[in-house]
Amino acid sequence: MILDRFRLDGKVAIVTGASAGLGVAFAEGLAAAGADVAIGARRADRLDETKARVETLGRRCVAVATDVTDPEGCTRLVAAAVDELGRVDILVNSAGTASAMPATREQPADFRAVVDVNLFGSYWMAQACGRVMPAGSSIVNIGSVAGSSSTGLPQAAYSASKAALIGLTRDLAQQWSGRKGIRVNLLVPGIFPTDLSAQFPDEFLERMKADRIPMGRLGEVDELVAALLFLASDASTYVTGIQLPVDGGMLTG
């Protein structure tokens, strides 16, 4: 049955940034589709809440305090997934951070901090997973429309880091899809109701809905999770190296 291709029974997924926002939703969505889940984030206390949500869905979960800017920390999260859940089939690189600062005032440490999490963290996690994933596995990097189009906010570090994920995704897909059988794709969210978007002024969100989003509304988190499940599951076994925008049409303009 074609719908069976979207199921993740018997699979093990890792989700970073799983202490809040989209990371929590991704972990829950993967568990609802049948996967056991290993979760990582810097805020260890909040990981327990996500772990409880996954286990309520009847799936196993292991939570590991993880700073994705530390390659050894990434390796520990992957090792915990293998040791306690048996394997790693899916990686969702959801850990991320953002800043909004005029370019003439942004400090080097602030710029590096954003790139370190969004770009380097995604690479260290992919590298650690790529060493243990079996053929048929899937890596989903989480990008942003800001990587391809300006939103009008002063976000040089964030935009640069998300644009860099396009190249990272393409290169890893080229390296691994044939030789290792690991698909690598980029999920590109538009604007969703998250902790990050809650910091935007109301007038900014209204302007975006009116002028930049053809569908005239923000996305619903379930709409993004559904797209993630497509890329994570066997529904997309002939899809690699792509950017999948889930943005209400923002990138059409």
SS-based structural class? alpha/beta
Please tell me the overall pLDDT: 94
**Net shape:** globular
Which segments are poorly predicted (pLDDT under 50) over 5 or more consecutive residues?
none
Q: What is the number of domains?
A: 1
Q: By CATH's scheme, which homologous superfamily applies?
A: NAD(P)-binding Rossmann-like Domain
Oligomeric organization of the protein chains: single chain
Number of helices: 7
* CATH domain class name: Alpha Beta
| CATH topology category name | Rossmann fold
Distance between termini? 37 Å
Strand count, sense and closure of the main sheet?
7 strands, parallel
Fraction in helix: 40-55%
Number of strands: 7
What is the CA-atom radius of gyration, in angstroms?
17 Å
Q: How much of the residues is beta strand, in percent? A: 5-15%
Order of helices and strands: EHEHEHEHEHEHHE
What's the layout of helices and strands?
Blueprint: E1 12-16, H1 21-32, E2 36-41, H2 44-56, E3 61-65, H3 71-85, E4 90-93, H4 108-130, E5 138-142, H5 156-179, E6 183-189, H6 202-211, H7 221-232, E7 243-246
Can you describe this structure?
The protein is an alpha/beta fold and 253 residues long. It has a single domain, classed as NAD(P)-binding Rossmann-like Domain (Rossmann fold). Helices cover 43% and strands 14% of the residues. It has helices at 21-32, 44-56, 71-85, 108-130, 156-179, 202-211, 221-232; strands at 12-16, 36-41, 61-65, 90-93, 138-142, 183-189, 243-246. Strands 3-2-1-4-5-6-7 form a 7-stranded parallel β-sheet, sandwiched between helices. β1 (12-16), α1 and β2 (36-41) form a beta-alpha-beta unit. α1 packs parallel to α2 (44-56) and α4 (108-130) runs parallel beside α5 (156-179). The protein is globular and about 45 Å long. The model has no long low-confidence stretch (mean pLDDT 94).
